[in-house]
Amino acid sequence: MINVLLISVLLLWGGDISRLKKADELYRQGKFDQALEIYQSELNKNPGDYATAFNVGNALFKSGKFDEAEKAWAHAKSLTQKPGNVSASAYNQAVADFQKRDLQEALKQTKEAIRMNPEDEDARANFEVLSRLLKKQQEQQKNNQKKDQKKDQDQKKDDKKEDKKQQDQKNQEQNQKKQQQVSQIPKEQAQRLLDALKKNEKEALLKKKEMQSRSRKQVDKDW
């Protein structure tokens, strides 16, 4: 697993030293909300104090406020140009991002921590862990996409089968309806239709014979 956040309660300068020492003591006792209240108050008085801003992030993180902690460390990082301080802030930002399951951002911040402090073994170890986790996450996302695509294809096939089934059922119902309509014709009307059909067939037969007779006469005449 990724290394646990390396809390660095720095030696503080500026502001009320006695209050800051009290905040440090509260922090060590695990009273993070009380420590945060003092740190934040002192930061409001000295907005450019990197150490106080850094410790605000530490207290927020320990209170489970990962989004706010990440922002506090980003702010702290903007207040310094010292490579060690920038690396520490970036390192802690990466851990907060990891807690939020934002592996890409965590890896980005870890790279910055290593760039600013190449000797940071913890940051290097975290980089290896995050790289493996991110690769695994990306592979899982690809597998999920393939599963979703296959599911969609199967659903389309099922929909086509269902449409065909419904169409067949509709055709069958229409045929049954036609048969019912035929069966509902009154007996006298049905007889008239039958007689008319027979009459038409008889007339067609007579015409056929007449045509055959004419053909024979023409043939006899030619001979």
Could you say what the CATH topology of the largest domain is called?
Serine Threonine Protein Phosphatase 5, Tetratricopeptide repeat
Strand composition percent: under 5%
Mean pLDDT: 81
Element order: H for helix, E for strand: HHHHHHHH
Instruction: Please report the distance between the alpha carbons of the first and last residues.
Output: 114 Å
- For the record, what CATH class of the largest domain applies? Mainly Alpha
Q: What low-confidence regions span 5 or more consecutive residues with pLDDT below 50?
A: 1-13, 215-223
Task: Indicate the CATH architecture of the largest domain.
Answer: Alpha Horseshoe
Which structural category fits the helices and strands? mainly alpha
Number of domains: 2
Brief account:
It is built from 8 helices and no strands. It is mainly alpha-helical and 223 residues long.
Describe this protein's structure.
This protein is mostly helical. It has 2 domains: 17-137, Alpha Horseshoe (Serine Threonine Protein Phosphatase 5, Tetratricopeptide repeat); 185-222. Helix content is 82%, strand content 0%. The chain has 8 helices and no strands. The chain has helices at residues 17-28, 32-45, 50-62, 66-78, 83-99, 103-116, 121-183, 187-222. Helix 3 (50-62) runs antiparallel to helix 4, helix 3 packs parallel to helix 5 (83-99) and helix 4 runs antiparallel to helix 5 (83-99). The longest helix is centred in the last third of the chain and has 63 residues, at 121-183.
